[in-house]
Specification:
The protein is α+β, with helices and mostly antiparallel strands and about 325 residues long. The chain is built from six helices and eleven strands. The protein folds into two domains: about 55-65 and about 105-275, no CATH class; about 70-100, no CATH class. Helix content is about 20%, strand content about 20%. The chain starts with a helix and ends with a helix.
Length: about 325
Amino acid sequence: MKKLVSVMALACALGACQTMPMDSASSAATADAPAPMAWKAKRGPDGVHPDLNGVWQVLNPANYNIEAHPASAALQMREGPYVPVPHASVVALGAIGAVPAGIGIVQGDGKIPYTPDALVQRDANRARAVELDPEVHCYLPGIPRANYMDKPFQIFHSDSAVFFAYEYAGAVRNVFLQDPEDPPLDSWMGTSYGKWEGDTFVVEVRGLLQDTWLDRSGNHHGYATKVIERWTPLSDYHMRYEAEIIDEEVYTKPLKISFVLYKKIEEDAQLQQFKCVEFVEELMYGHLRKNPLPGPALERAKREAEQRAAEANE
């Protein structure tokens, strides 16, 4: 019994030691410990603003659809006996042609604020996405789409110049650091004007061709679109990209998107070549061969020959 009492007394004493406050020396040591320092972006070539140089890439499927979407069998579907099935032009791709699910990059309620007419146009685009998407024909992707395609891009900047190089189709854009005013002509990649707001690089893009899409699902913009991009470093290896897309003819309010870019840190990180113009020559010009190859090119050549014959007989 005495042994049991002794053990209990020892246990109570140990418990009291664990719950007793630290002595003054320990408290002083803790108080003197420096607080963790907030992360600050490495300064760039001008010594004032963050260094954005490097190869960057997204890790999301926004290029398929910037809105939230489930996985599906193909980009373009057709009615089947019971449920929609992949369109005849892509059915041979099987799972390779499937669309992965995505949580979307559209802010707010996650929906693009289309006007009624613009929504009708989106649906028409989506129904013929494999034929109409500019990416299929290797046209330049425009802004903001170039920044969330599955291929990386590289930022080069000094204290007096900023340049973007994209792996897809060899697309590039020079960001003016003095306002160039409205461009005389629209172009695929538009005209970019950038300035710093603290540690955020803000770029205004104007003069974009309305032919560019926002993704492979037919989401689009108009001819009067203005894009305001915000590039904000989050760590040495991450950067927040935000864009406000303004077009009163297409959207009932500005469309806002946001996602994170990841910096490639491999020693051999660099852009590869994906100059896809030559990859689509058969698609776009195969029907012009003297002897078109069997398949879509031959079928198109026959249709056009029949049309010319019909016109000649009128």
